Amino acid sequence: MMEEHIEKLRGVVRDCVSKHLYSSAIFFADKVAAFTSDPADIYMQAQALFLGRHYRRAFHLLNASQIVLRDLRFRYLAAKCLEELKEWDQCLLMLGEAKVDEHGNFSDTKDSNVMYLDKDSEDREINISSAICFLRGKAYEALENRSQARQWYKAAIRADPLCYEAIECLIENHMLTCEEEKSLLSSLQFAQEDGWLSSFYSCLIKKVPKYIKNTHYDKASIVEEKFNELEKEDTSNHSLTCTLKNNTDLLACKAEYYHQCGEYQKCFELTSVLLEKDPFHLKSTMVHIAAAMELGHSNELYLMACNLVKDYPQKAISWFAVGCYYYCIKKYDQSRRYFSKATSLEGTFAPGWIGYGNAYAAKEEGDQAMSGYRTAARLFPGCHLPTLYIGMEYMRTHSFKLADQFFMQAKAICPSDPLVYNELGVVAYHMKEYAFFTSFFVSVKKKNDHFALWCMWYKKAEWWFKKTLAHIPTPLSEMWESTVVNLAHTLRKLKLYSEAITYYEKALALSTRSLSTYAGLAYTYHLRGNYTDAITYYHKALWINPDDQFCTEMLTVALVDESRQGIESEI
Asked: Model-level pTM?
């Protein structure tokens, strides 16, 4: 009868935990442990204390038991108590000595002599070794040893692909480069029934190349194929239809993918629907803020910032949203202060550091901007944006060779971002201009060499711009109009006038209010001797900006040239 009564008390403890009545759970668990002195009941008592936030008492109970070093559950829960107490060195000491390599292979000298005492369960469990590896990673990250943290997170996800926290930390904290992400994903051993999880992880890892050539289609999206797999309805079980089509996490992931592709309106519309469904889904909120920033929706940013500050005053995302609002309305000093506050609340909040640098860059305060970008590049080695922005700052100060080096580093980290290729094209174009001007200060014998170099940089710029367009989903959106115009300018410089005109016309199909496009098209017609069309487009350019000096002067020249041509033809 006593055993039956104790089992009922255990049931009471489990029920109290499920109803979040932690004081009641602690009370009854303490009595059960006193009755039995069973290690499993002691563990249940420690678990109740942990859930009731009595971390020091729970740790003392676990540490006082003789089984703490022989049962992985005891050791892990004791380390979790130390994690909550922020005693990171003691946490690592409790977990024991272990070694891990760059690929996430680890060895734990203590684990060979320990037990894992648990009650039989029909539920599928996450490997305890994976949980321990993840906790080691968190401890090292808290101690600012990000290299070791990255290796232990990799070890955790490799030990058990179900440990989602590990891959989330690796991706959200930008710890892996493109090649490392692909290598890690290919090394994971999923169970047969976890095919959907493999596809989901593939969607999370967005630095993989997004497009592949296909014999039937010009471009087939690798990531979108994974999304389609997850959204497809599985009707193999007639009593249950399995699909993630309306899953918030998957749709948030898709919205982030749209943002990375530059489809900001599509992204904004999707996140708007998601936030109506789940207003407190912070991943969707983050993407929604980013899309609203790109689209210049200052009113939406203001409302988001107010709600976030009210609901989450201690979260970095709240003050980041405030900073984005001020950045959007061009009040850069205020935006910088709020980006700084976001990073002070959460030092590993990548958007905050990048926004901090951008706020300084917007006011052309290069040194402070560089400081923010360098901090972000050091903290987030898997994020290419800080390196890309450092390159942009060097380009702004005409340090083209340094800019080119940083753009190439950004390309190595994320070879799928078309913006990187666009900037490489721009820097190649400018390096050609630099080569052209320096050619005036060298001897006549070297003129031909400089002319060859001049053409080489233009060819290189053309190649980069065409590669940019190859990485952009079709049809092109207006945001890529400048890339098309840049390519047209480059082709004009190479005297490929027909091809240049084709790209100018493509740019006009994207935006009809670009002075640069009309001026470039007019000048190209002018160079070809087609003065009538040149005059027409000079007039269109001047309609946009009547004070443009280049178009005004060239229109006069074109009119004179056309008159001269008419006179010569009559003669």
From this structure: 0.84
